[in-house]
Amino acid sequence: MTRLAVVGGGRMGEALVAGALRSGVSASQLRVVEASPDRAAFLLDRYGVSTTGLDEGVVRAETVVVAVKPGDVATVLADAGPLLAEDAVLVSVAAGVTLSTLEALLPGGTAVVRAMPNTPALVGKGMTALSLGTAANGGQMRRVTELFSAVGEVVEVPEAWMDAVTAVSGSGPAYLFYLVEAMVDGAVRLGLPREVARQLSVQTVRGAGEMLTVTGDHPVQLREAVSSPGGTTVAAIGELEEGAVRAHVARAMAAAARRSAELGTPRAPAPDNDRGRS
């Protein structure tokens, strides 16, 4: 029996394949459904994992991860649902697509887990939130937890939190990339060479993240420890507060959460004679 089938060999699908291999799953126990010949060739060359059509990839798989765009979920599930093994668990990483939607698109009693990982999974430092569907059991949840634990940390949350999770950790890496981009540009304007500015900015963010993890201190405590009265950091933070950066971050996250909810209604499946295989 196939241990893991990944429908969609993009960056998140690749991260899960790499994590599964690191955790001891053999390439022969993995199947990837990927329509792009170039992407399929890349996955085979880098990971030794063969790609296949949906029928062969999904049938007899213990865990099936659907890693396609939210609007493509309905089409994939219409094709994949009848092929699932009786004890298989289907995992969706599509932003916004609810458990009730997933369960309605699949045969009755199908075990479903909704997952929201993020792109640091590509380097084994991801953060994934999981929500359990009505038919999924503890053993299936453990399988899914082990899968995502191979690419970072995992937390189980009520599904009602998922749009907020998407706004925090799902989209969160992009906020930090944006900040680093701004720091690099600011350093260049101050006269530093771009590569030096990048090294300083990237390592600063990396080190600050590690301090948050290792010390367990509140971000306010760590910020105040750097902020000497009348010093450079206080001057900088004053400018950020003057620009209402905190409020802008909150509004940006609210926009992400709203968009996650909007993405939760996938397109209806195309007629059978028009539907392509993923």
Features:
2 domains, disordered C terminus, eight-stranded mixed beta sheet, 12 helices, ProC C-terminal domain-like fold, alpha/beta, 8 strands, 278 residues, Rossmann fold
How many β strands by DSSP?
Answer: 8
- Provide the number of structural domains: 2
Gap from first CA to last CA: 21 Å
What's the order of the H and E elements?
EHEHEHEHEHEEHEHHHHHH
The fold-level CATH name of the largest domain is Rossmann fold
Strand content: 5-15%
Main sheet properties: 8 strands, mixed
Give the overall shape, derived from the CA principal axes.
Answer: elongated
CATH architecture of the largest domain: 3-Layer(aba) Sandwich
Name of the CATH superfamily of the largest domain: NAD(P)-binding Rossmann-like Domain
Structural class: alpha/beta
Just give the CATH class of the largest domain: Alpha Beta
Would you kindly provide a written description of the structure presented here, covering whatever features stand out?
An eight-stranded mixed beta sheet has the order 3-2-1-4-5-6-7-8, sandwiched between helices. The chain has two domains: 2-162, Rossmann fold (3-Layer(aba) Sandwich), CATH 3.40.50; 171-243, Orthogonal Bundle (ProC C-terminal domain-like fold). Residues 273-278 have low confidence and may be disordered. It has 278 residues and is an alpha/beta fold. It is built from twelve helices and eight strands. Strand 2 (30-33), helix 2 (37-47) and strand 3 (51-52) form a beta-alpha-beta unit. It is elongated. Helix 7 packs across helix 12 and helix 8 packs across helix 9. The longest helix has 22 residues, at 194-215.
